[in-house]
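Checked the freezer inventory, then went back to the computational side. Two predictions to log before the end of the day. The first one is the construct we discussed on Monday; recording sequence and tokens without edits.
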Amino acid sequence: MEHTTAIARALTEVGPRLRRLRTQRGVTLAALSEATGISKSTLSRLESGQRRPSLELLLPIAQAHQVPLDELVGAPEVGDPRVRLTPRNVNGNTVLPLTRQPGPLQTFKMIIPPTRTNPDPCTHEGYEWLYVLSGRLRLLLADHDLVLGAGEAAEFDTRLPHWFGSTGEGPVELLSLFGRQGERMHVRARPRPRAKGDDD
């Protein structure tokens, strides 16, 4: 009985959640209708609770808003806390996306093979922050040719010609945070206060 009540409560909360998500993003019913192929009247009835939510309706809406389906239905947390990552192969690198939904900043764990040593600089909009977990990373940035070891980080505007790979000594494991232009990590080293006698 308690389980049935929880499901019924979750279903009644879907409509207000859909309306809140749409209005927060400044999306009109007409625009959402065009993006999903669902009529304005159906969307309106769904948001007001007059239409029962179904996968056929929720999936296109989740896709249009670029949010996970469980965010629309308010799915409860499951008991298993493990995050199951799906690695991808991108230009010979193993890339594991750590960010679960779209946003201004995206986080990846990358493993660069020791064979990735031939520089191929590129430029694009954005800002990137790299943190080396293990191995030695070679970073070409404009006129700079740098080598970063474990525990070292770099941040740069990706409109500058850049490339990073292995030094050839072994694989490199690193974290990459990438943001669109104007988004920065706000990680800054502050100068050490000068003590009396530093110039003595």
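The second is the one RB wanted added to the comparison set:
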Amino acid sequence: MEATAQQEQVRAIAERFVQLAPEGWARLVGNWEATVVDGEVSLNWVTLGVVDLGDRWGAGQFGFDEQLYDLVAELNEGMAQAGERWTVLDLEVDRDGAFRTRFGYGPPTRTLGRPDEESLGRFEKYLDTWIAEHGPVPGR
């Protein structure tokens, strides 16, 4: 997958993520672990949105979205064709439209039943980390 096609695919994933976002969202965060099972990509995913609730910050997980899942799986397959199949994709999307991706190539830990700080542990504490960085009340 050439760099331009990869960037377009990542942008499509970020755009779909935004389409699913709740009202008042400030940041969306996703972590997908990819494994190949019987020749097909299988994704273990955790997604979270940080939301401005007016008097406090809130956070919640997203439900399954087939279109988002398919876009992430297509990115994995496309990169595999170029010999760059990732095992972990991290994506953060901010309200201002900025987004960041990081690809990992080691064994996917959560999928193997080993919760780690980088994936599941980070999500369990994400709201606390956000509040520590942005204060307890939005806009202050």
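For RB: The CA atoms of residues 27 and 94 lie 5 Å apart. Residues 3-20 form the longest helix (18 residues). Let me know if you want it refolded.
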